[in-house]
Amino acid sequence: MKLLTVDEIRALEADANAKGMRYETMIENAGSGLAEVILSRYGEIGDTAAVGLVGSGNNGGDALVALTRLAEAGWEARAYLASPREDGDRLVKGLLEAGGEVVIGAEDPRREQLNAWLHSATVLMDGVLGTGIRLPLRKEAAELLRDVKKSGMLPHVVAVDCPSGVDCASGEAAPETLQAELTVCMEAVKTGLMTFPAFELCGEIVTVAIGVPEDANQRQMVIDADLARGWLPERRLDAHKGTFGTAVIVAGSVNYPGAALLAARAAYRIGSGLVTCGTIAALQRSLAGQLPEATWLILPEEMGVISEDAAGVVLQNLNRATALLLGSGFGQEEATGQFLKTLLHPASHSRRVAIGFVGAQGVKEKEEMGGRLPPLVVDADGLKLLAKMEDWWKKLPANSILTPHPGEMSILSGLPVAEVQKERMEIAREMAERWGQVVVLKGALTVIAEPGGRLGVIPVASPALARAGTGDVLAGMITGLRAQGVGAFEAAAAGAWIHAQAGLLAAEKVGHSASVLAGDVVEAIADVLSEL
Ligand SMILES: NC(=O)C1=CN([C@@H]2O[C@H](COP(=O)(O)OP(=O)(O)OC[C@H]3O[C@@H](n4cnc5c(N)ncnc54)[C@H](OP(=O)(O)O)[C@@H]3O)[C@@H](O)[C@H]2O)[C@@H](O)CC1
Ligand SMILES: [K+]
């Protein structure tokens, strides 16, 4: 789904209007699209009656057109005007001609008509205010929404473009805003809806086209099933395991033994041909039996963590790797920091011979090594260790994928967590640009940004994913997709979307979001893929 700021959608509409796609036509298209969604979702329920709360602007216009279409389809269609519309309003006239009913709120001071309509309605369309709002709500609108809330049992609430009372630019919401079951966005989801508290008030979000020309370079998007499906690799019948690549998962330490297993399982479940786990011997011994499908690479260690000498071992074993994950469960010991540094910049190794790589000196050697690294994903403690290196982003191959949560993003960027959280999209975009890397800013409504280009938001916030280990699962999934040849942005965005859906599905299966373990999320990956 498209994602646009309020200013962008206004500019797009103005441009379309100037080129001959008139505003009236766009409103007709918007209302007709809205009616189609309502007919397809709620048309089979039985009683077919819709009440529309209609504001004085174009948001109300969309609702009036939709009510007219519903009346034409045989529904009882009733418009409740929050404030009077212009005399002889063309859209009000159209609804009356189609057999609909219209009442002005001011003429129903005790809300008797409103309550009677709500009582028999299947759908309540919320079309009081859209992108034209300036908070706080004025008295008339606030009272109407409050009275609707008070009326008791509400029918299915469908918000027109946004729940009325939400500021589509900032994501703020008036306290009177009605909780929607479904929000039908006109042309694009507005960025404010992808922030809190607005997001929670929207329910499910869909978009309908209003007729503005398609932009082939659409750069901002809400990730959905169609996008994710389109990015997954084809699984050809004549494939062999080499077709789906080799994911190398370098992860774990004695204190975080599960990270390697979760990431490796996730890489397999998302379709990698082969997964090789690089970790310390103690972990290999305890984990190997739990994942017989993996091959193992035993790495040198120091006091239970991966040590510097492991860099040479990893580098010597990357010839078949098509993606490499670094960082999950590393811990933050100095020895592992040295490992990372040497891996990314072999010339810095304190005992060069141990690398087992005889190459030219200095810069040339670094370039050769850098060139040897397969597509990279850096996660968790790997990010914290990276942050300790000067100009760390210059040491990574371009378009590596970084998967920070807000705390890690704060360490990498030097910005306070609160600031990161306040401007998630802007900051992900800015840092992707500055670092030349794909950034996956995790948390509720995960943001994926690539340098100079696309930005995606995952429209899911679930406590099921606020769990230890789910980050390892995500890193493994993204690495697994990358290993199959999926592009960096696409692998990150599809991986994050499937991960979020797997979290939701796991909560459904287990019965409660509080009881979902990271392993349940891994097991739900296949269900998400089968539904795609
Ligand atoms: N433009 C197009 O071509 C298309 C537009 N489309 C649709 O139109 C929507 C945008 O329409 P819009 O710009 O008319 O604004 P809208 O959200 O209806 O509200 C304006 C009204 O609200 C009032 N008002 C403002 N603040 C208020 C408050 N705090 N409390 C109470 N009232 C307040 C304000 O009053 P005023 O301040 O002007 O007196 C004015 O009367 C957009 O979301 C989409 O649904 C699509 O169909 C595609 C084509
Ligand atoms: K609305």
UniProtKB/TrEMBL annotation:
EC number: 4.2.1.136, 5.1.99.6
Family annotation (CDD domains): YXKO-related
Domain YjeF N-terminal: 9-218
Domain of life per record: Bacteria
Needed cofactors: Mg(2+); K(+)
Residues annotated to bind K(+): N59, D126, S164
Catalytic activity reported: (6R)-NADHX = (6S)-NADHX; (6R)-NADPHX = (6S)-NADPHX; (6S)-NADPHX + ADP = AMP + phosphate + NADPH + H(+); (6S)-NADHX + ADP = AMP + phosphate + NADH + H(+)
Domain spans labelled YjeF C-terminal: 224-532
Co-factor note (free text): Binds 1 potassium ion per subunit.
Residues that bind AMP: K442, G443, A444, L445, T446, G471
Residues that hold (6S)-NADPHX according to the record: 58-62, 130-136, 161, 259, 329, 405, 472
UniProt-recorded Gene Ontology molecular function terms: ADP-dependent NAD(P)H-hydrate dehydratase activity; ATP binding; metal ion binding; NAD(P)HX epimerase activity
GO biological process: metabolite repair; nicotinamide nucleotide metabolic process
Family membership: In the N-terminal section; belongs to the NnrE/AIBP family.
NCBIfam families: yjeF_cterm
Subunit-structure text: Homotetramer.
Function: Catalyzes the dehydration of the S-form of NAD(P)HX at the expense of ADP, which is converted to AMP. Together with NAD(P)HX epimerase, which catalyzes the epimerization of the S- and R-forms, the enzyme allows the repair of both epimers of NAD(P)HX, a damaged form of NAD(P)H that is a result of enzymatic or heat-dependent hydration. Bifunctional enzyme that catalyzes the epimerization of the S- and R-forms of NAD(P)HX and the dehydration of the S-form of NAD(P)HX at the expense of ADP, which is converted to AMP. This allows the repair of both epimers of NAD(P)HX, a damaged form of NAD(P)H that is a result of enzymatic or heat-dependent hydration.
Name this protein carries in UniProt: Bifunctional NAD(P)H-hydrate repair enzyme
